[in-house]
Write a structure and sequence with these properties.
- It comes from Roseivirga seohaensis subsp. aquiponti.
- Pfam families: GerE (PF00196), Response_reg (PF00072).
- It is a single chain.
- With 211 residues, the chain is of the alpha/beta class.
- The chain has two domains: 125 residues, Rossmann fold; 63 residues, Winged helix-like DNA-binding domain superfamily/Winged helix DNA-binding domain (Arc Repressor Mutant, subunit A, Orthogonal Bundle).
- The protein is 54% helix and 13% strand.
- Strands 2-1-3-4-5-6 form a six-stranded parallel sheet, sandwiched between helices.
Amino acid sequence: MNKVTLVLADDHPLLLQGLESTLISKGFNVLGTASDGRAVLKLITEFNPEIAILDIEMPEMNGLSVAKHCMEHNYDTKFIILSYHKETEFIARAKSLNVSGYLLKEDALEEIEACINEVANGGKYFSKAFHLKDIASAQTTLEMIEALTPSERKILNFIAANQSTREIADKLFISERTVEKHRSNIIQKLDLEGKPNGLTTWVLHNKHLLH
């Protein structure tokens, strides 16, 4: 029996059953399965598995929400996300939550063993279908966000909520000129200078990464 302990969650019964059977046949220790986010969160809390393998889209809580909750509450469990989404923004979102693995569902059964072993050994594993440039792009976006000050990130969240400069100034008890100065600094840090409506477009595309 492989000593790596796992819990699994997916709202597609056949996929969940197939994944569980595959992992058991390979000797992994599957502690439990669930079909929605709240149920798997209960399993994680109860069993403290080494790894949780989660569908990105589930009822109650999606896989990334479960990972976020556990990260915020300092759980030891590592996460592997299963998804049909291969867009860069989903990779970035997963990386921002310190997810250890991200597999495309169509490749899951072929790559799951290698992914689990890599994650169990402290590494990261992203589906081979992803281009390295997409993963690098996601990392660059996260690093740019991390380089912003707390005030700048707060202003980005207000922009994402469609707040005007005056509304942002009123909420933060600062002048409109100060808000514009922050916007200018953000544009520079995000390398958006010279792009018409660049900041608004960037925020709409990346608001899922803002906290």
